[in-house]
């Protein structure tokens, strides 16, 4: 019966206009899979290919270039099956997605969305499953990093007031990559995010106004991560690297807030607030990354004090929770805060 159904579908497919062939192929594959499932109770194979493999291929047909969003939606829904196929299916799916990303900004944007949806459909994935996904996640991180680098370069090359249509497409592609990066930042090992360049690429986007919101969200998600029970040393090193990035950007941001004109000051102020929030979040979740290093701790306290004493009331209030909670509840920080206050008081008296 399945073969008869397949023959009928092939006959129909021959009469379908070219622009709808991808749709017809997707429906052909899907109907064959569903028919086989109804007859034989979802067997492992269909015509020599895994059931999940065929549905994954069908979903890619529905994600073809030029199709309306409603069709893409069905393609994304069908991609829920990919996690049931194990790591081999994920690796097989990544190859056509990578190929798709090389065609141009439009297809690269779609590829980034596919990567995001793969993350969104991970379901009940737990930490014990991550070692099996090591190669897949490495390739995803490298792909997202390369896409951000490639499509942000053309944006940086153009003057902000002379963006071309092609550059606008690159903006959409980078934004899609950031959305995907934020999705993976929630669960991919922090070591992977740092090692394979995604943290570095998102750091570079903090200096571009169009991407600052999503780039800051990436770092906020990272700062909320909790220390794993295993590979704790590698995690601490990676989070220390994130801390150093935020500290560097923090000082630059405060300098820009003081130097900006009224028009751009609001934007820079929002960035400074976001960075202060990230620093507070990082210390809340990963105190061990700085508390053992007296130099880092001192620099951090000075930076938070600068936020607290800032003439912009928004920055003052953004840092207030830290001084109300953590400088009191953590003895080590309280000790450093006390000595820092004495030092600053002595400096101010000397000036007077």
Q: Short description, anyone?
A:
This is Exportin-5 C-terminal domain-containing protein. This protein is mostly helical and 352 residues long.
Structural overview:
With 352 residues, the chain is mainly α. Helix content is 76%, strand content 1%. It has 17 helices and two strands. Helix 6 (105-120) runs antiparallel to helix 7 and helix 13 (262-285) packs parallel to helix 16. The protein is globular.
Low confidence ranges:
1-17, 34-40, 347-352
DSSP strand content = under 5%
Q: Helix fraction?
A: over 70%
Q: Mean pLDDT, as a whole number?
A: 75
Tally the helices: what do you get? 17
Distance between the termini: 95 Å
Q: Can you list the strand order of the major beta sheet?
A: 1-2
GO biological process, one term: RNA export from nucleus
InterPro entries: ARM-like, Exportin-5_C, XPO1/5
Organism: Aegilops tauschii (Tausch's goatgrass)
Protein name: Exportin-5 C-terminal domain-containing protein
Task: Chart the SSEs and their pairings.
Blueprint: H1 2-14, H2 21-40, E1 45-46, E2 49-50, H3 51-62, H4 69-78, H5 86-101, H6 105-120, H7 134-157, H8 165-185, H9 190-195, H10 198-205, H11 212-223, H12 232-259, H13 262-285, H14 288-291, H15 294-308, H16 313-329, H17 331-351
Antiparallel strand pairs: 1-2
């Amino acid at each position: 019966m399945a073969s008869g159904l397949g023959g009928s579908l092939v006959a129909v497919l021959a009469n379908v206009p070219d622009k709808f062939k991808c749709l017809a192929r997707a429906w052909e594959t899907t109907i064959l899979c569903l028919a086989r499932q109804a007859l034989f109770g979802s067997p492992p194979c269909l015509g020599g290919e895994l059931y999940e493999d065929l549905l994954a291929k069908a979903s890619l047909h529905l994600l073809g270039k030029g199709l309306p969003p409603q069709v893409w939606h069905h393609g994304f829904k069908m991609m829920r099956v990919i996690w049931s196929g194990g790591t081999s299916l994920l690796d097989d799916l990544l190859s056509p997605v990578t190929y798709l990303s090389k065609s141009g900004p439009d297809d690269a944007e779609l590829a980034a969305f596919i990567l995001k949806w793969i993350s969104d459909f991970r379901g009940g994935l737990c930490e014990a499953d991550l070692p099996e996904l090591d190669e897949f996640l490495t390739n995803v991180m490298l792909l997202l990093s390369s896409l951000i680098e490639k499509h942000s370069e053309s944006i940086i090359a153009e003057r902000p007031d002379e963006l071309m249509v092609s550059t606008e497409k690159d903006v959409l592609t980078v934004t899609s990559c950031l959305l995907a990066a934020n999705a993976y930042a929630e669960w991919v090992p922090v070591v992977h995010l740092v090692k394979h360049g995604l943290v570095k690429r998102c750091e570079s986007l903090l200096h571009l106004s169009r991407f600052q919101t999503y780039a800051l969200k990436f770092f906020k998600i990272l700062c909320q991560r909790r220390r794993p029970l295993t590979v704790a040393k590698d995690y601490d090193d990676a989070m220390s690297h994130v801390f150093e990035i935020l500290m560097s950007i923090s000082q630059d941001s405060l300098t820009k807030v003081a130097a900006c004109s009224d028009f751009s000051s609001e934007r820079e102020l929002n960035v400074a607030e976001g960075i202060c929030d990230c620093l507070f979040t990082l210390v809340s979740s990963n105190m061990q990354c700085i508390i053992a290093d007296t130099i880092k701790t001192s620099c951090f306290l000075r930076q938070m004090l600068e936020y607290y004493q800032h003439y912009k009331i928004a920055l003052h209030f953004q840092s207030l929770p830290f001084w109300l909670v953590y400088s009191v509840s953590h003895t080590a920080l309280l000790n450093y805060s006390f000595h820092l206050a004495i030092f600053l008081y002595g400096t101010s008296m000397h000036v007077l």
